[in-house]
Structure formats: structure tokens, C-alpha cells
Amino acid sequence: MKTENQRAWFFVLPVLLLVAFNALVPIMTVVNYSVQETFGNNIFFWQGLDWFEQILRSDRFHAALGRQFMFTFLILVIEVPLGIIVALSMPRKGFWVPVCLVTMALPMLIPWNVVGSMWNIFTLPNIGLLGYFMNDVLGVNYDMTQQPISAWITIVVMDVWHWTSLVVLLSYAGLVSIPDAYYQAAKIDSASPWKVFRYIQLPKMKTVLTIAILLRFMDSFNIYTEPFVLTGGGPGNSTTLLSIDLVKIALGQFDLGPAAAMSLIYFAITLLVSWLFYTLMTKDDAQ
Amino acid sequence: MAKVTLSNLRHSYLSNPSRPTDYALKEINLDWKDGGAYALLGPSGCGKSTLLNIVSGLLTPSEGRILFDGKDVTSLAPDQRNIAQVFQFPVIYDTMTVRENLAFPLRNRGVAESKVTKRVAEIAEMLEVGEMLDTRAAHLSPDNKQKISMGRGLVRDDVNVVMFDEPLTVIDPHLKWKLRSKLKELHQRVRATMIYVTHDQTEALTFADQVVVMQEGEVVQIGTPVELFERPQHTFVGHFIGSPGMNILPASVENNKVIFNGNTVAVEGNIIGNGGTTELGVRPEFVSVSATGIPARVRKVSDIGRHAVIETMVGDMRVRAVAETAHFEQGTEVHLTFKKDQTRLYRDGWIATEVAS
Question: DSSP code of A36?
């Protein structure tokens, strides 16, 4: 017979404490703020779910959320196919493999605020290389500090530059794990290149792609530093994504209650979308 | 179905081969008859997979030609050669159902849907996978996956050659036997030319009508399983085929007589050639322990079921004999006799006696 020793639970205690301090406690303070109001002096009043209601009904939140979804959608639609295409065209062996891999990995190693500053200087209409080139050489009226469209194009291109490599590296890892026999069998079965991609490469990349998309979704949905440094949310509010707006409310206006409520809603959306996506992607395998 | 001819075939993985050792495949000339079952047998690295890939078109030979029914296909791509290949690891399209997997090669070739349905049903019945047609191929067991990859090869009725590259490697031992007899049965039903690559002699000998034994890129013998067993053309074949392998014993030739450890040994027939290193070859099955003959001492006895393998020492040379009983004490002095018509002389590895007429 198996002996049950309930004292084994004590082994879990250190982890429980750790998790409590780095996750539960901070979240609970946010929850705490989200249901109270304060006028300073550390005096708080019970507010119930008013802040949540206020946020969910506010046009400002809707607009920021809309921009956020737009941004995430755009970068996923660009980065995932682009990443797959780049991974497919990379060499499988030889001298160029490490060269490609290192070149790909470089953007990801740059600190995020540096990426923001780099692109800011790069795209400034008068002194930036790209800004100068667009305006004075190509004659395109491009000014990301003044035009919402230019600002949007710039933050999207910046993110594509910064993070497509992640999709490339993960897809590449998936691709190189496919044994040669699959390609040989496909050749013998006279499969077209499209069918090779559709029935061999894509299925074999599915796991890593799921992870890549999930990571890109979470990172882009929570993005703050780069657009903040690049455009500061402007011009106007045109590139004020959720996180930028949140920081404005929390630290700019010091509205702790609404900011806390917004954080929780923000967190819930991120969690919900990630969960839905992951469940859908892994549903087939569980059958 | 087609006859396969390999003519002056050589292959090297190096760009500028100069020495014979640069070649992964040394000069090969052979004919595989239409509808035959052939095996390529040899240890790992002997060039059998290279040869197979050349036949399937995945590799272009450095020299020589391959002909299917007399038509030169050396420069044709695999899909134009109309061949099928079953790989070491089951290659299946995970996201498709079994039915879609089997239909895939036909649909890619634009075969009419009514014919696809008919062929898939036939093949499924033949492979006994009918009830799994609508399951996703990813969920099958390895032996069924391997059956499906065979099925994808057999589904085309115009296939010239079906090739198997060690197809039973990942299959559980008890299913190996089942799949092996399935293969044999399939060959009898479809009568396609089949080439089976393996390093397992049991698989080769049970599957094939003709076995091609290869060593270091060279074909050492082509023959029926019985020929390979009874009259190996090379000591390698004697050693590689049979369990235990042939006794290969250093011997000298004096006055047209074979002398082994001071004893004159009668061989099957006339000795041909001269010089070189000479060795005596006799299978343990044809060595018997008797009252007279070559003196030996019993070193080890292993009972392997139906019979026993007696390992004896003649001087410092090991000679194995197969006996009905295991009643031999270690260290006993015994005498060995070699069956005359199964005792052969080898010179530099190759056979150097003629069959007595």
C-alpha cells in the first residue's frame, strides 16, 4: 500500500511564497486600487466596480483598444508570413547558415528603448537618414511627427524590423528538423512546391509557429517602450496604444483607480486571447 | 513494371575521384528482371543506400547509366521515373487522413477521381487498412504508418520499381515478421519489380528471389539465398550470411592439396589460380565431430535450440561446428571432418575451387 504523507506539502511552500511575492501580492494591490478611490493622504473610499464600468464605457479606452488590436493585427499579418518566407529561403547547411542566423538575431539583442531612439533619429524628417531620403530624394511627404499615417507606418515597420527574426528563427528550427526522406517522398509522389509547403513544412512548423504567434501576440499587445520613445503616442493620440494610455492615466493623471481597473481589463484581454488561440491551435493534436 | 539495368555504374561523393577508394560505389553492372524481388544486402556504409538512391533518381551517378526496360533514365528526376520508395522511417503526411495519403500520388498526377477511389479501395484492402481509411494518419502506430507509405508506392499501377530502404527498422520485432510476410504476399499479388535494401540477412533472404551482397561499394555476389548460403563467392559472403557464419581458416596449397594446420583437407574440386593469400572456407553446418579427422579441442558449447554450436580450437584457430547434441565437455579432445563437396578454397577472398563435375 502507498503511504500518504501530507507533510510533503511543505515542499511546495517556498514556491508558493515566491509566487505570492512576485505575482499575487502585486496583482492584489492593483485589484485593491481598482475598487477604491483616494483623494490623497492615504485615505481610501470603497468604489465597487465603478471604475471598471467607467473604463469599459469610455471612448478613450475603446479608441486605444482599437488601435492596439489594429497594431497587433498588422504586425502579425506581416511578420508571420514574412518570417516563414525568410526561413524557407535560408540555406540548410554550409557557411551561410551561421551568418544568416547571427544577422537575424542582431535586432532582437538591441534594448527596446535603443530601438525606439534609433528609429526616431533614423526617421526624423530633416536630420534622419530615412526621413531625408523620403522627403528630399524621393519627394514623398513623410513626417512621422506630424502625420498619423507616417507614424503608423513607422511603428509597424520598426516592429517588423525588430521582431520578424523571432518568427524566422523559430520557423527555421522547425524546418531543419524535417528529415530529408519527407522531401524525397514528396518528390516521388510528384507533389508541387505548394503541396510540399502545405502538407510537410507547415504541419512540421505548427508547434513552433504557435509559440511564435503567441509570443508575438503577447509582446505586441503589451508593447510600450518602442512606440513611446519613437512617437510618444502621437501625433495627437494616433499611436497611443493601450499601454501608453495606461501609463498616461496612472502616472500622468495619477488616477490610480481607473488605471488599476484598466490594467485588469487589459490583462484579462491578453490572457483570454492567448488562451483561445492556444486552445484552438492545439485542439487537433489532442484528438 | 520494368526491367532495371545498371550499366557501368560508378558513384563518388567527391567532385574529383581519383583512387578506387574515392568511390562509394565501384563499377556495377547488373540486370534486375521485370517483376522480380531483389534484395541489396550489406553492412552499414557498403553503398547499398547510394545504389538505391541512384535507381530512384534522388542521386545522379558520377558515371554509367540506368535503364528501365532499355530506356535511359539516368538524368530523369524521381517523379519522371515512375518509381516508388519506402523509407527507413515511415513518411506520411500527418495532417491528411489515411485515404488522402493513399490518394496523394494519384491526385498529384491528375488521375480521375473515380479511378482514385477504386485504387485506394484496392490498396487498402490489400494492406488491411480498410477500417482506418478515415483516421488522421498522424494517429497510427509505426507499423501501420509504414504500411501507408508502402501503399502510397503501390497505389500507382504503372509504377516501374518499388524500393524499400530498410523499411522495418522502426517496427517492433513481433510486427516485423507480420509485415515481412505481408510484403512477400504483396509482391506475389502485384508482381512489381521490388528492390529491398537491408543489413539484416533474415529480411533479405526471406524477401528476395535474388540477393545482391555488397561490401565497400562493390557487389561481391548475386544469387539466390541457397546459392549464397551454399557456395559463397567471397569470404565476406560466407562470413556475413549464415548464423554462425562460415569458418574461414588460413590454409596453404602444396602440390594441389590444401593443407590446414598440417592436415590435408579435401576440397570440392580443382584448385584454380595461384599465389595470394589462401583460406579454407567451410560452413559450421558441414563440419562434424567424428572419430577420425583433424584433432581439435572443445572450447565452448552453445545450445541454440534445435542444435548446438560447438566451438573448437585447432591449434590457435577457431573452428565452429553445428551438432545435434550439446553433449561435449569443455576441453575434450575431438576430431573434425569437413564435408568434401562443401569445403572450398578462397584466394585473396575470392573463391578458388571449381565445382566437381
Answer: E
- Dihedral angle at the C-alpha atoms of B74, B75, B78, B81, nearest 10 degrees? -60
Query: Taking all residues of chain B, what is their mean pLDDT, rounded to a whole number?
Result: 85
Contact A199 B152 (CB under 8 A): no
The verdict on B100 touching A (C-beta cutoff 8 Å) is no
Q: Which of B183, B206, B230 is the last residue of a domain?
A: B230
Give chain A positions within 8 Å (CB) of B84: 188
Hey, where are the domains in chain A? Answer: 58-286
Give B-chain residues touching A199 at CB under 8 angstroms.
93, 95-96, 104
B112 and B195 together in one domain? yes
Smallest CA–CA distance, residue B83 to chain A, in Å, is 7
pLDDT in tens, A32-71: 888 888 777 777 788 778 788 888 888 888 888 999 999 9
Q: Which of B79, B87, B94 is opposite residue A181, by nearest beta carbon? A: B87
Please tell me the CATH code under which domain A58-286 is placed. Answer: 1.10.3720.10
This model of the complex carries an ipTM of 0.75
| Helix, coil or strand: residue A45 | strand
Domain count, chain B: 2
β-bridge partners, B333: B297
- Does the beta-carbon distance from B77 to A182 stay under 8 Å? no
Residues B316-326 have a mean pLDDT of 85
Q: Scanning every residue of chain A, which has its alpha carbon at the shortest distance from the alpha carbon of B138? A: A285
Q: Last residue of some domain: B195, B230, B265? A: B230
Asked whether residue B65 falls in the same domain as residue B135, the answer is yes
For residue B356, being part of any structural domain is answered with no
CATH at B215 = 3.40.50.300
- Tens digit of each residue's pLDDT (9 = 90 or more) over A232-274: 877 888 888 888 888 888 887 878 888 888 888 999 999 999 9
B interface mutation test: which of A183, A189, A197 has the most B CBs within 10 A? A189
- Using CB atoms, which residue from B85, B109, B136 is nearest to A190? B109
- How close does chain B come to A202, measured CA to CA in Å? 10
Q: Lowest mean pLDDT: which of A136-145, B305-314, B337-346?
A: A136-145
Confidence of residue A83 (pLDDT cuts 50, 70, 90): very high
Exposed e or buried b per residue across A231-259, where buried means at least 16 C-beta atoms within 10 angstroms of its C-beta = bebbbeebbbbbbbbbebbbeeeebbbbb
pLDDT digits (tens, 9 = 90+) for A128-171: 888 888 888 887 887 877 888 888 998 999 999 999 999 999 99
Chain A interface, Cβ < 8 Å to B: 179, 181-182, 184-185, 187-192, 195, 199-200, 203-204, 287
CATH of the domain at B310: 2.40.50.140
Segments forming the whole domain that contains residue B258: 244-351
- C-alpha cell recorded at residue A136: 528630399
Query: What contacts A38, CB < 8 A, 6 or more positions away?
Result: A44, A45, A256, A257
Residue B181 in domain: yes
| Same domain membership, residue B259 and residue B131 | no
